[in-house]
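Researcher: Hi, I'm a grad student and pretty new to this. My advisor asked me to get structures for two proteins we've been looking at. I'm not sure of the right format, so I'll just paste the first sequence and hope you can take it from there.
Model: That works fine. Here's the first sequence with its structure tokens right after it:
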Amino acid sequence: MNTSKTALILGATGGAGGEIAAALLRRGWTVRALVRNAARPGLDPRIDWREGDAMHAADVAQAAEGVDVLVHAVNPPGYRDWDKLVLPMLDHSLAAARANAARLVLPGTVYNYGPDAFPLLAEDDPQRPLTRKGAIRVAMEQQLAEATDVRSLVLRCGDFFGPRAGNNWFAAMIRPGRPARTLLYPGRHDLPHAWAYLPDVGETVARLLEREGELERFARFHFAGHLMDDTALLAAVRRTTGNATLPLRAFPWWLTWLAAPFVVMLRELREMRYLWSEPLQLDNRRLLVWLGEEPHTPLDQAVEATLRSFGCVA
């Protein structure tokens, strides 16, 4: 247990940020978080909530005073203006981490890889993304690599799912707010795909931070998570819902083409289609060397927690 360190979480009301905060709290850390409205209902009372906006450098700097770790798990709301806001927001976090000699943590994705690196992604594989969002992810990590006076940690993961997940593929496949009736699968049949259960991601970051002093300045790890094809995911959803005949149908990609000019979320999903056309797995051997094991919640338990949070099971 570490009772002497403080972390600032940007994005603590979201998926990755919320689970990292929860894992650090379990270990005795003092956790602060930046939120636009500190009086909003439902905020975890164990967290020191500071009112402010991650898009304002002064707010981030003030909230970060005296912290040991700064977790940058925040994105522009609704995927809007990614190209204009993402890199300036990271600049604010870098400046705050630098001012406090804190390690900056960035939950990473596979967006910064192109198909030439598939199917098994290692930390040092070339990053040649096909998409605008992928190019921004590459630029974010490049900023960390070039900030030689800031220690950073990147944990790259597959597609997120879990009880705190926000915009994610799981919610696009099973409509939240009603009993699960259909699984709309976006990928090709029998292709394994990497999924990251968010509580396991949070636990992994916390365990790595327990050895912060041993990490290299720009530390990168891959999180393997759950490797599933459509058959395995469908079976887990059927077991969780108790519906042995719940059907599997193809995700309506045609709808993303029609609605993309009007719905930002669908436009962003369409851009990521290439990730569902090839097998996709993250090589976690380096992480295993460091931790001895990767935190891993059983699949049925993870799927049940996710569907309960969606309101899809009683």
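Researcher: Oh nice, that was easy. Here's the second one.
Model: And its structure:
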Amino acid sequence: MKQKFHIITSSCIPLPLENIDTDQIIPARFLKATDKKGMGDNLFRDWRYNADGQLNKDFVLNDPSYSGVILVAGKNFGSGSSREHAAWAIAGAGFRVVISSFFADIHKNNELNNFVLPVVVSESFLQGLFSSIAADHQTQVCVDLPNQTVTNLATGESEHFEINSYKKHCLINGLDDVDFLVENRNKVIEWENQRM
């Protein structure tokens, strides 16, 4: 799942629902797993599949007219419990970016820790994006992490987004927290030696 992140241009999967919580992202019955493998298969499990286990053809992830590595979701994405499995499922399903007008803080950090970029945009930008995707399912969006911009290529509208500088560095360089410490090992040793 570790991938360097610079600029991603992709079509999107729209999920214009507010208050999507972590139990909807990955139901609690899958939380016994201690391995990320296969978690993406159960992303939005109760929406993607009918009670009989067959695909729900009306759910957007099962609609072949939509594709891409960007998920566009309604306000307050990832609320509820702090389960990291929700971020595992999003990353495991191949998403690199989630765009919303608001994220629950813990879920937002879990996404970042799993190399998924949560992009916070204004409500008006989000609604414009949903409209563009509804009009053309292959609408392209460009997410530029170095410049911290997201652009709806159908309209040319662009917004700046915020990201913690440490997490930005880690995403651009494909580093998790341990990799970052290893990368800075000499600085840590030098700091410790100065205090002995």
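Researcher: Is there anything I should tell my advisor about the second?
Model: You could mention this: The first helix runs from residue 22 to 25.
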